[in-house]
Prior knowledge:
This is 6-phosphogluconolactonase. Its EC number is 3.1.1.31. Pathway: Carbohydrate degradation; pentose phosphate pathway; D-ribulose 5-phosphate from D-glucose 6-phosphate (oxidative stage): step 2/3. It is an enzyme of class 3 (hydrolase). 26% of the residues lie in helices and 17% in strands. The chain is built from six helices and nine strands; from the N terminus they run βαβββααβββαβαβα. Helix 5 links the parallel strand 8 (199-204) and strand 9 (236-242). The protein has helices at residues 17-39, 87-94, 117-136, 191-194, 210-218, 243-246, and strands at 10-14, 42-46, 69-73, 75-77, 145-148, 173-176, 186-189, 199-204, 236-242. The protein has one domain: Rossmann fold. With 258 residues, it is an alpha/beta fold. It binds the ligand O=C1O[C@H](COP(=O)(O)O)[C@@H](O)[C@H](O)[C@H]1O. The ligand O=C1O[C@H](COP(=O)(O)O)[C@@H](O)[C@H](O)[C@H]1O binds at residues 47-51, 75, 87, 148-149, 151, 157-158, 181.
Amino acid sequence: MAHPAPHPPILYSFPDAGSLVSSLASFILKAQKEAVEKKGRFTVALSGGSLPKMLSGLIGHPSVKWDKWHVFYADERVVPLDDPDSNHLLCTDTLFSKVAIPPEQIHAIDTSLLDDLEELADTYEKELIREFAQKDAARFPVFDLILLGMGPDGHTASLFPGHALLAEDDRWIAWLDDSPKPPPKRITFTYPVINHALRVAFVASGAGKVEMLRTVLDEPEKGLPSSRVKPVSPGQLYWFVDDAASAAVQYSRTAFKL
Ligand SMILES: O=C1O[C@H](COP(=O)(O)O)[C@@H](O)[C@H](O)[C@H]1O
């Protein structure tokens, strides 16, 4: 059955990092409330890079129900969990060490499989299947929220410009050993997983992102990886950015309100 056309992205731009962080926290709390009321759990995927520190508005916030969070990684570098390149280590240092998510609800890669990328990706996919397929019987998992970053080349998760994985339309988790950004070995959500989420939010800040954000939002026809994120209805894509990053963007902004 054909899906209705995706909704256009909603762009929120904030004058400074502080207002971006607090608005993002309010947005996440609304998503959490709806998910918990409906299903008793909140399924979230996080990215590495600059994203985890933007979640600081949740730390110590009385409305966060950390025990309801079930966390996966939109992508992970295939390194030991104490390696400085690990997205899990970054998220642990920045967030998990400061909040009370039950450890079994934080889904890290199986590091006994670091030398077998395919098996490691399969195993992570099976964790997703355990979390989603039995409960929702869906062809693809439907995350309540996927939080993404955008790299300076327009990549998101570990989906890089020109890479064959941009065309992967079957698997939930793909692997690569030729990431142009180190480290080379990674696993990543595929587009079908990202694009079946109820909400996908990119978070990007700083003048360093200005040209790429303009290209991704104003010239989606160029097909950069971040422009290919188009959640299927009823899913919705949001951009949470600061004015420094959106300075050159023509795409219309929406005033933030919940
Ligand atoms: O390598 C990665 O990069 C992207 C973008 O990082 P950022 O520092 O430019 O925000 C990140 O979203 C991804 O999780 C990570 O593995």
